[in-house]
Specification:
The protein has 292 residues and is an alpha/beta fold. It has helices at 15-33, 36-44, 52-63, 117-129, 148-155, 172-180, 195-208, 219-226, 249-265, 278-287; strands at residues 69-72, 75-76, 80-81, 93-100, 103-109, 134-138, 163-166, 185-189, 211-216, 233-237, 268-272.
Length: 292
């Protein structure tokens, strides 16, 4: 989607293209400061990656409802800043949506500009306490106000949950850097990456012991991903990254069309975006997803 970004007069066609253009600049600057060789060496000294898929599978089997990937996110292009004036005394704001006696969806948002590292430790522990199988940490700075420092802080906090680095990956540098900061899994977006890049990045993830969560939004993207060997985890996003419009029926529609192939390949599916109530979660669960 970044074709033509070298033209100073070019205008992005959609939100995703703008994010990718900005990411190209960011990654270029980061690589100039910390070359790939240095990042690779740092990743080799990171503790072994934790089993992201294993944690999701175990939670799903144990509770009988989708495993929970709790997300640390300060802001997004669709909703703006989620917590502008965070109160450190009441260190987290949560919405609990009870699904069963043993499982709940917990959404916790916080303002990273006003929270010290010790508060972030409490937040991470709150996720685990409330049943999260894994944590998703936003690392995009410009559009989501996240950071790799947040990822590293949570990793060093002592939580046992595997961590997903939720990033707009366009370069292998980001994968190695995420691993060096403690990521156990990383997001790869089919709308951003050509097939050859996805295959190459998937191999790198496997070599690093990381899980690749490959995100799709439509049938064409899903078919592309299903043709790639070694895919173990697919996320079906109900939100279009071009318009940021949400349609929760998207997961069911794609599962109805390709669910048999997904099951045959033994791929775990995550339902993403627009899930706010028990009915929403039950809806995607009935479609065949194992995590949200």
């Amino acid at each position: 989607p970044s074709e033509g970004s070298g033209d100073d007069k070019a205008v992005p066609r959609n939100i995703l293209e703008q994010i990718v253009w900005d990411k190209e600049v960011e990654v270029s600057q980061r690589k100039a400061k910390k070359p790939l060789k240095s990042v690779v060496e740092s990743s080799e000294h990171a503790p072994p990656a934790r089993d992201f898929i294993g944690a999701l599978t175990a939670a799903h089997r144990r509770n009988g409802v989708p495993a929970l990937i709790a997300e640390v996110k300060k802001a997004s292009p669709s909703r703006g800043v989620l917590r502008e004036n965070f109160n450190p005394v009441g260190f987290f704001y949560s919405e609990c949506i009870t699904l069963s006696s043993s499982c709940a969806v917990l959404i916790i948002t916080y303002d990273t500009t006003d929270v010290g590292n010790w508060r972030q430790v409490e937040i991470a522990q709150a996720y685990e306490k409330n049943g999260a199988a894994c944590l998703s940490i936003l690392t995009d700075e410009k559009h989501f106000q996240g950071s790799f420092e947040n990822l590293e802080t949570v990793r060093n906090s002592g939580v046992q949950c595997p961590l997903l680095c939720k990033e707009f990956v366009i370069d292998i540098w980001q994968i190695y850097y995420a691993r060096s900061k403690g990521a156990d899994a990383i997001l790869l977006i089919a709308a951003v990456l050509p097939d050859l890049d996805m295959k190459y990045m998937l191999r790198i993830c496997k070599n690093l012991g990381m899980t690749a969560l490959i995100e799709v939004h439509d049938e064409k993207e899903l078919d592309r991903v299903l043709r790639i060997d070694g895919v173990e985890l697919i996320g079906i996003n109900n939100r279009s990254l071009e318009t940021f419009v949400v349609d929760t029926s998207n997961t069911r529609m794609l599962m109805e069309k390709r669910g048999d192939i997904i099951k045959e390949k033994g791929i775990l599916v995550v339902g993403e975006s627009g899930l706010f109530t028990p009915d929403d979660v039950a809806y995607v669960h009935s479609a065949g997803v194992s995590a949200v």
